[in-house]
Amino acid sequence: VRNAHVLHGFEPISTQAGYAAAGTYNGVSAHYERFPAMWQVPVGPVLRVLLVHRGLNEAQVSKRLDTSALDYAEAHPGYVSKVFYWNTLRMLNLTGTRFELWDAQYEAYPRWLTSLSVYTFWALGLLALAGLALAWRALRRPPPAFWVCPLMVFLSTVFFLGSTRYRAPADPFLIMAAALARQA
User: Fold this and answer.
1) Is residue 184 pLDDT above 70, yes or no?
2) What's the CA gap between 151 and 160, in Å, rounded?
3) Which of 107-111, 118-122, 145-149, 164-168 is predicted most confidently?
4) pLDDT at residue 103 is higher than 80
């Protein structure tokens, strides 16, 4: 109701989709060497929208940013694969501690805890793989519906943002997969 009144349109959840897409699908993120294909604050795209279209509300800006990001992705189709690749690596901590330590400064996590979380996730990941392999071998496989939630979490973010905080809702499923190693 608030969004319909203030934004003059149907915005059921958020107006952030355009900002997320435009922060990843732009020339700055595409050529960022330190962390390839990583989301950046979309200052350029936002300024371009606001300079050309004054007086837009946040939902209208987000829709214009969506269009800008889609245009970029269409003009650079190989970049979509690059985003998927690098965000997958970052979400699974497969780039090591460098990215997580950089990201942690914005989350106010201590460096030691950040590094420990990466190594702990590696151990959890190995246990989850072992649990799944042992359960598969013992014919006690998790039902396919079990994987819908973590798969949806992954697919809803991997094309835009790739950090472990976006993986977090799927972590309980990895813990359950790791527990299968104990039962097998």
Assistant:
1) no
2) 15
3) 118-122
4) yes
Structure tokens at 89: 């690596």
In a 3-state reduction of DSSP, which class is residue 85?
helix
CA dihedral sign, ordered 156, 115, 123, 172 = negative
Tokens of 164: 């472990």
Tokens found for residue 23: 């922060």
pLDDT digits (tens, 9 = 90+) for 152-173: 989 999 999 988 888 999 999 9
Instruction: Report how far residue 128's alpha carbon sits from residue 184's, in angstroms, rounded to the nearest whole number.
Output: 12
Q: How far is CA 174 from CA 91, 137, 150, 179, in A?
A: 13, 18, 9, 9
| Residue 143 CB neighbours (<10 A) | 7
What pTM, to 2 d.p., does this model score?
A: 0.85
Compute the chain's Rg from CA coordinates: 19
Residue 92 is encoded by which pair of tokens?
């699974």
**Which residues are CB-contacts of 68 (< 8 A; sequence separation ≥ 6)?**
18, 22, 25, 26, 45, 48, 49
